[in-house]
Amino acid sequence: MAIGSGSWTEAQRPPSDPDPRAPPHRVLLERLLAWDHGRAAPAGFSDSTDWERIVPAARAHGLCGLLPSAAPPEVLASLSAPLQRELAVQRLLARSARAALTEVLQLLEQAGIRCAPLKGPWLAERLYPDPELRASGDLDLLVAEAEVDAAAAVLTRAGFAPEPSPSSAWYRRHHHHISLQRTGSPPIELHFRATSGFGVALPSEPLLARSVPAPAAAGMQIRTLSPEDEFLYLCLHAAGHHFERIGWLCDLALFLERYGRALDWPTLEARAAALPARGALRLTLSHLQQLGCPLPAEPAPLSLSLRAAERIRSRTLGRGQPHWQRTCASLAFHVLTCDRWWLAARWAFHRLRLASGNHLRRAFSSR
């Protein structure tokens, strides 16, 4: 099975009682890689573990941020030169992303636009033992829908160019961000909704209203979502991408390690129900439970439709499948995860409309 299509099997499930002498992040890395049907790594590490094999798997899944506290120091020092170069490049990219985030947040603050980073360097700074090794390809920034054009104008004056899209009007109605690019900087996804999927949208305004400034490096104050809002967003984001990248589960596991005691679980459940997006939340919690994450109570059993969605995801949504197969499987996964049948129908209609439009544009442009 391809990387990214993992789930547990009894034969590969790591022991429920890990070696108490093992560092906590090593245990988490073991379990995350074992989640990938044993292809990325064995279910447990030992003195004979092939770390030359572990590091590329960790990098492919966005898990390099755990390596410094998971691998023995002598192992990290002895890794081959190509792998050392890969980790060094990731550090440089992370520093570039952090510098771009600082610049953009200051520009938006000077313009009086509230902005809260989603994922990315700010999440890494708060959760990871080595923030520079959390993979991040772009910057996700949340602004109010009424201020997205003003925010885009600020970024345009700073040299960022909006990414042209023939479906921009459709995206404004049914998607959740616009994209901007600048040479030498990571791409920016400017969210006017936190996310959209499963027939619902997570609006930005309530999240920003509940956010608070938090102290960051270099004396900055960065607006941060409430623990319940941030956790719900991370769950919906991971489920919306079919848990394809194990690093998203790693984010959630480390979030629970850091903020689990502060989470108001009834509030979290109520906000998921109000969207409604309980199915996506329950599916994510079931995977976190299997990773041994501290949850306050046993998650509700998966419904028949959620079990079917998980079966489709684990069997047909790996990275090696043909595009048409992934598209059909993704559609089925989202439809089965929606909380209401009419939400599923609405989501499927809009996705099919977009897919058919893109197909027609490609067909005509090739003539």
Tell me the strand percentage band: 5-15%
Please give the oligomerization state of what you see.
single chain
Structural class: alpha+beta
SS summary, helix count: 16
Task: Characterize the structure shown.
Among the domains are: 1-79, no CATH class; 322-367, no CATH class. With 367 residues, the chain is α+β, with helices and mostly antiparallel strands. Helix 1 (24-34) runs antiparallel to helix 11 (246-259), helix 6 (120-127) packs across helix 11 (246-259) and helix 14 (304-316) runs antiparallel to helix 15. The chain is built from 16 helices and 9 strands. Strand 6 and strand 7 form a beta hairpin. The relative contact order is 0.11. Strands 1-2-5-4-3 form a 5-stranded mixed beta sheet. It has a two-stranded antiparallel ribbon with strand order 6-7. The protein has helices spanning 24-34, 51-60, 67-70, 73-78, 81-110, 120-127, 148-157, 168-174, 204-210, 227-240, 246-259, 265-274, 278-290, 304-316, 323-337, 341-365; strands at residues 116-118, 139-142, 161-162, 177-181, 188-191, 193-197, 200-203, 212-215, 221-224.
Key descriptive features of the protein:
single chain; five-stranded mixed β-sheet; alpha+beta; two-stranded antiparallel sheet; 16 helices; globular; 367 residues
Write the layout of secondary structure elements.
Elements lengths: L23 H11 L16 H10 L6 H4 L2 H6 L2 H30 L5 E3 L1 H8 L11 E4 L5 H10 L3 E2 L5 H7 L2 E5 L6 E4 L1 E5 L2 E4 H7 L1 E4 L5 E4 L2 H14 L5 H14 L5 H10 L3 H13 L13 H13 L6 H15 L3 H25 L2
Parallel strand pairs: 2-5
Antiparallel strand pairs: 1-2, 3-4, 4-5, 6-7, 8-9
Helix pairs in contact: 1-11, 6-11, 10-11, 10-12, 10-13, 14-15, 15-16
